[in-house]
Design a protein that fits this description.
Layout: E1 2-5, E2 9-16, H1 21-34, E3 38-49, H2 51-66, E4 70-74, H3 78-86, E5 94-96
Parallel strand pairs: 2-3, 3-4, 4-5
Antiparallel strand pairs: 1-2
Length: 121
Amino acid sequence: MHIKGDHAELAVGGRLDVRSAADARTVLHSAVDSGRGDLVLDLTELDSWDATGLGVIMEAHRRAGRANRRLVLRGVPPQMERLLVATRLHRILTIDRPAAPVGTSLPLPSAGGAHRRKREG
């Protein structure tokens, strides 16, 4: 795992897991404590995380809140975003999603299993 950046934006790469958690915790806490405003955590280069790594991110989120800051996750890989949704942490964490390009329509929700009743008569 590698983390580069400053107190305003950090890029995390590699694996955020039980082996790298202590180092990541130290860097994140230092960044939260030494800055102001949003702390952006760019996860574009993150290969994977485990429960311990996710716990480190949650700790940083709570610490940022106590410091009147906000932890913002950017570039969350799709498989990791699915985990955040499955655990409902996407409701707690701030995730910066890229805006859809101008002129691009977003897919409409599918009727997925909705049944229509035929009118009789």
